[in-house]
Amino acid sequence: MTTVLKLKNISKEFIEPRRNIVALNKINLELSDGQCIGLLGPSGSGKSTLLQIAGLLDTPTNGEIIINGEKCNTLSQEKKNLIRKKYIGFIYQNFYLLDSFSALENIIIPQLINGSTYKSAKKKALNLLSNIGLSKRIDNKPRELSGGEKQRVAILRAIANTPKIILADEPTGNLDKKNSENVIKIIKDLVSHYKISFIVATHNLSIVKKFDKIIKLSEGKLI
Ligand SMILES: Nc1ncnc2c1ncn2[C@@H]1O[C@H](COP(=O)(O)OP(=O)(O)OP(=O)(O)O)[C@@H](O)[C@H]1O
Ligand SMILES: [Mg+2]
Questions:
Q1: What is the whole-number distance in angstroms between the Cα of residue 169 and the centre of ligand 1?
Q2: Which residues contact residue 26 at a Cβ distance below 8 angstroms, ignoring those fewer than 6 apart?
Q3: Is the CB of 43 inside a 6 Å radius of any atom of ligand 1?
Q4: Spatial distance between the Cα atoms of 143 and 174, rounded to a whole number of angstroms
Q5: Fewest 10 Å CB contacts: which of 28, 55, 140, 178?
Q6: Which ranges of the chain would DSSP assign to H, the alpha helix?
């Protein structure tokens, strides 16, 4: 199996006036092709910090990030942006869809940014939306969609450019049990269909039970 993401000895310290916060303490982690890792841990244990660093949105104080074989720490911001665009998708608890655009447009736009033609982007978006039962909601704006529907659109947006890795931060945090299970099922289907690798951070043990591997953070350490 190929390793798509490797974190070596990652530490992150936030400098604060009163005391420094060690958000991550010597984290080692390997994510392989098509693997789905659940990242558990209580509030403040460092889950979001870990995903931000893995996705090159934040820099570690120490340690190395290797994405698809490439060492990323010392790359220019421009090169980091390119790697992020090419390999990584994000899903958040609060969806972060574009409010003035329809569900369909929310999935078309990232593809256009990535260089697709409008025609092929639309075809792919329609296809994806129909696969997860949203064909009737394509023209609706995010505010007209339910929480579960919004999260499904957000997942499609994250996979629209078929990234290798998806980093999901509490993707079911705003959803009820039924919608949460649905989101997890979609994630599992994507893993097997596109061989996308996932790291899913959550408080909720029942969400990650079905994943390949579960890791647990406690006060910035993997245990
Ligand atoms: N930008 C920042 N500046 C200072 N401290 C921060 C910053 N971001 C996070 N922290 C601190 O780092 C620690 C880890 O935070 P993080 O957001 O990674 O936790 P989490 O596991 O995602 O928590 P939650 O489950 O509540 O989302 C916390 O003590 C937090 O207060
Ligand atoms: Mg968090």
A1: 12
A2: 9, 10, 11, 62, 63, 221
A3: yes
A4: 15
A5: 178
A6: 47-54, 77-87, 103-113, 118-131, 147-159, 177-194, 205-208
For atom 11 of ligand 1, the residue with the nearest CA is 23
- What the block records as the tokens of 77 is 């911001």
- CATH number of the CATH domain containing 172: 3.40.50.300
- Residue 8 in contact with residue 201, Cβ under 8 Å? no
Cα distance between the two ends of the chain: 24
pLDDT of 58: 95
- Would you state the torsion angle of the CA atoms of residues 125, 78, 57, 141, taken in this order, to the nearest 10 degrees? -30
Output the CA 50–ligand 1 centroid distance in Å.
10
- At residue 75, the pLDDT reads 95
- Domain encompassing residue 134: 3-222
Write out the two tokens for 185: 């099922």
Q: What are the DSSP calls for 66-104, one per residue?
A: EETTEE-TTS-HHHHHHHHHHHEEEEETT----TTS-HH
How far is 189 from 63, CA to CA, in rounded Å? 33
pLDDT, mean of each 10-residue run, the chain (223 residues): 95 93 97 94 95 96 97 95 93 92 96 95 95 92 94 92 94 87 86 89 85 93 92
Query: Does any ligand 1 atom lie closer than 6 A to the CB of residue 44?
Result: yes
115 C-alpha to ligand 2 centroid (Å)? 32
The total number of structural domains that make up the chain? 1
pTM of the model: 0.93
